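Troubleshooting log. The previous structure file for this entry was overwritten by mistake, so regenerating from the original sequence record. Sequence copied from the archived sheet and checked twice against the printout by T.R.
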Amino acid sequence: MRALARSGRRGGTREGDPVSTDAELGEVLVRDGLMSQAQLKTALEFQKSLGGDLRAIVVKLGYVKDSVIAGLVAQEESVSTSAEITPDMIDLEAGRALPRAVLEKHQVVPLKSDGGALVLAMADPNDLRAIEEIQFLANRAVEPAVAPKAAIRKALNQLPELLRHQEQKAQKSSIPAEKLKALKDLSVERLLRAYVVLQIEKGHLTVDELLTRAQKL
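Regenerated output below.
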């Protein structure tokens, strides 16, 4: 969030002064009347004692909602923002191509886009390490979009199930309609018998194995 120190400043730290990310965030929150100086002092004391991210501390103390901070960061950085990330917004192709461990590490989610750039939902649009790694892996330019951390975590948790659903849908759609209808017209019992016979014929299952398993049931 380095650009917070350079955009829209009305007093406080002078333009170009070297300040920390937390200092910039605290100054903008107070500047815009979202938090008082006393609240900022309390949050900084918590941070000094317990460590951690000032943004997370401010949210946990109930001073400012994370969605409000996300909108503020997006406005200061002149990037897009989203209060929530719905399943239809997620770029599943990019989500499948990018390593899950990388998405989790940086807490980012790829979003659908009409352009050539990969839109990346992230809490901090100035996380250059995340942007550079995703750009390298995707071989595409990355356009950051700010979202609350809670929305990003929720989307990451939903991603595996969304990918499984997409894969199942693709497999189902690959079956010709007439064959799919023929399968639906057959009883489950008949399909199971046919499946067992097919497995034996292909050598994936022996009669002895089948009988042994059946006797144990």
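The first strand starts at residue 80 and ends at 81. Archived copy saved in two places this time.
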